[in-house]
Design goal:
The complex is a heterodimer of chains A (372) and B (309). In chain A, 40% of the residues lie in helices and 14% in strands. Chain A has 372 residues and is of the alpha+beta class. In chain A, strands 1-2-3-4 form a four-stranded antiparallel β-sheet. The chains are: A alpha+beta (372), B alpha/beta (309).
């Protein structure tokens, strides 16, 4: 075996060394630990887990460190690791109604069973930089709630008691499909998509892109008249059926954020008016993402609900094809790869067309002179 | 035990050629289907690769699925073996598959390429793997996949001919210079990937198998050996390839694709072979261009190709 060594190889190796050097920064400052990132940059870790579709706080924190804090690069690192993992099976659907909620708010009711629970939110903080945080001051432990650990009634279930909101599954509940939902990281993607795949694509879609699309629906590009029926954040049990045992076993708990949007009603000659749903669920704590996802999910149901598709957020191919930030960044940034062969082809054509243009000009001025 | 050491121990070791065997099997099935329906874009469950989308993930997955320990791999980008991304992909396969690599076209069993087809005629048994950014030749005429799939199914290619006609009406030429659409085996219109149209004739009736991988767009397509590949044109505007006014400044080759190299800021430029292996081979055989370095006239012909940089 022999190896071809050319100039590019040394350049790449040197670039990687320089990257490692810049990543470490000033050596007199202690290196940040993975535990510190997990504990103190938890929302960055959550975003990486959500958009990489892998619930692994330590690995996500490692990715954040390796990526020098570049979120999309960290997501990319974790995804590239995720693809190599074997699949043992699918979990049962998460029962978010059983969630031990750290936060639960509803914008549709003043009060409701279990109450409004604010939890660890930035809402109502005044965004004033806190000089105390520049140091390492002792922080008091959070006050404990009395009712901690009790499941809270879902707002959508309250509406469903009166049949005022569409059912989560349109058909007979007894006939609800039991097979695991689709997986677009394992099957070729095809349009039009079923809602399970669409939700998966949104759950791992770029937070900023979904935020902008959700925002656009609020400004009139495919308005859906949304109310934040409920947002809840907390831990849920992940369970898996083990055929040999004949019952489900718990694999552990994960933290998720769920948003149920209650949107303007639909009805027809046959069906009475009902509120419709938009749904968002993401790993970790990210209300912004869950809410944006719920808005976009509802907008993408335009066809199913008989609405005209006129806005970008209602266009499934447009939204799903462009929501993935790892794909988007790769393709945008690939423009920095050499393209000189194609550019040469374009140069050649432009030069030829210019030569023809000039010849035509000369010919025309010649005929004009001759005429004069 | 600290979390860091625990992490180090938990991280997986990778399979031969990176992809797990299940994934390879899935990709091979897509490749077989693609070979059975020349020019048809087969959807496949493209994986996230450890390099960015748009940087050859489709080609890398195809290569990873067909490569074996006995294979000899050549990787080119823009026709050159020493462009950074070609170097990077070659290094990837050396690392994960430990295969032999070469820069010699005729020694390679698998050639992964971006934007060029080697000048040297490919032989039976060789596989040319193209990296494809946008596999759909109709994409810029119709952005919707649901529509373009229908158009292919119905063999409805009128739109493409109208586009080429409008080019002629507006510019006097078909203004497509690369990714020039071809008709494969008289049935499917296909995007040859962004190779200059200069390379289109090499695809026709090739002795080698040609595989196309688009990772981000999740499509694989193929041209089996000895398949008709015709560049779209009109009777009164027949398809033409680019021609250059001067030969390669280093090896004197004519009828090959050349890169324009800027020499100074006063308009000085030279034209050299885009296919670096072809250029080195010719110089090793004693061919000289008008700007060959003097020492090359001594006739050692070591063929390191550095002069082309």
């Amino acid at each position: 075996m022999y190896v071809a060594v050319k100039g590019g190889e040394a350049a790449i190796a040197n670039a990687h060394k320089m990257l490692a050097d810049r990543r470490r920064g000033d050596r007199s400052v202690p290196s940040i630990t993975v535990e510190q990132i997990v504990e103190q940059l938890a929302l960055a870790v959550d975003r990486v887990m959500a958009e990489a579709s892998l619930y692994a706080p330590d690995l996500a924190a490692l990715a954040v460190k390796q990526a020098r804090g570049d979120m999309i690069e960290a997501i990319f690192l974790l995804r590239a690791y995720r693809t190599t993992l074997p699949r043992f099976g699918a979990s049962l659907p998460l029962e978010t109604g059983e969630m031990v909620a750290e936060r639960r708010v509803s914008a549709t009711y003043k009060d409701l069973p279990g109450g409004q629970v604010l939890g660890p939110t930035f809402d109502y903080t005044h965004r004033l930089l806190d000089p105390a945080l520049a140091g390492d001051q002792a922080v008091e432990p959070a006050p404990a709630r009395d009712s901690e650990g009790e499941p809270l009634t879902r707002v959508a279930d309250i509406l469903a008691q009166e049949d005022l909101i569409e059912r989560a599954y349109a058909g007979d509940p007894a006939e609800m499909p039991q097979e695991p939902s689709g997986d677009l990281t394992r099957e070729p993607m095809e349009f039009p998509m079923a809602r399970d795949l669409r939700l998966q694509a949104l759950a791992r879609g770029d937070e900023g892109f979904l935020l902008a699309l959700g925002y656009s629906t609020q400004r009139g590009y495919g308005r859906t008249h949304p109310f934040a029926g409920e947002i809840r954040i907390g831990e849920v049990e992940v369970e898996m059926d083990v055929p040999e045992l004949g019952f489900a076993v718990s694999l552990g708990r994960i933290r998720v954020t769920e948003c149920q949007m209650v949107n303007q009603f639909a009805g027809s000659a046959k069906l009475p008016p009902q509120f419709t749903r938009g749904y968002g669920l993401v790993f970790g704590q990210s209300e912004r993402k869950a809410m944006a996802m719920a808005l976009v999910d509802r907008s993408l149901r335009a066809g199913e609900l008989g609405e005209d598709r006129v806005a970008p957020a209602q266009d499934e191919e447009f939204v799903i094809s462009h929501a993935d930030n790892v794909q988007a960044t790769g393709f945008v940034e690939h423009l920095k790869l050499p393209h000189y062969v194609d550019f040469q082809a374009e140069l050649d054509l432009v030069r030829r067309m210019r030569a023809e243009f000039e010849a035509r000009q000369t010919r025309e001025s010649d005929t004009q002179e001759a005429a004069e | 035990m600290s979390a860091a050491t625990a992490l180090g121990e938990d991280l997986a070791t990778y399979n031969f050629a990176y992809l797990d065997e299940q994934t390879k099997r899935m990709i091979r099935r897509a490749i077989l289907k693609a070979i059975a329906i020349p020019g048809y874009q087969v959807p496949f469950a493209s994986r996230e690769m450890p390099m960015p989308y748009g940087w050859g993930t489709g080609g890398v997955q195809v290569t990873a699925s067909i490569i074996g320990p006995q294979d000899v791999l050549k990787v080119i980008d823009q026709g050159a073996d020493d462009t950074t991304n070609a170097v990077s992909i070659r290094a990837f396969f050396q690392k994960v598959a430990n295969v032999a690599v070469t820069t010699k076209t005729r020694e390679a069993t698998i050639i992964q390429t971006r934007h060029r087809i080697p000048e040297e005629k490919l032989q039976a048994g060789q596989v040319l793997v193209y990296q494809v950014p946008i596999p759909e030749p109709l994409r810029f005429l119709e952005p919707r996949e649901t529509e373009t799939r229908k158009m292919h199914a119905l063999e409805e290619y009128g739109l493409m001919h109208v586009k080429l006609y409008e080019d002629i009406a507006r510019h006097g030429h078909i203004a497509t210079t690369y990714a020039y659409p071809v008709l494969v085996a008289g049935r499917y219109v296909m995007d040859p990937s962004p190779t200059p149209k200069f390379d289109n004739p090499k695809m026709d009736m090739s002795d080698a198998l040609q595989l196309f991988g688009a990772g981000r767009e999740k499509r694989i397509y193929a041209i089996p050996p000895h398949t008709r590949v015709v560049s779209l044109d009109f009777e009164d505007h027949p398809f033409e390839i680019q021609s250059f006014d001067e030969p390669c400044a280093l090896c004197g080759a004519e009828g090959v694709y050349l890169d324009e190299v800027i020499l100074d800021d006063r308009g000085g430029r030279m034209f050299v072979c885009s296919d670096t292996d072809h250029c080195e081979d010719r110089r090793a055989a004693g061919h000289r261009g008008h700007l060959s370095p003097d020492e090359a006239y001594a006739g050692h012909g070591k063929g390191e190709g550095e002069a082309a940089r």
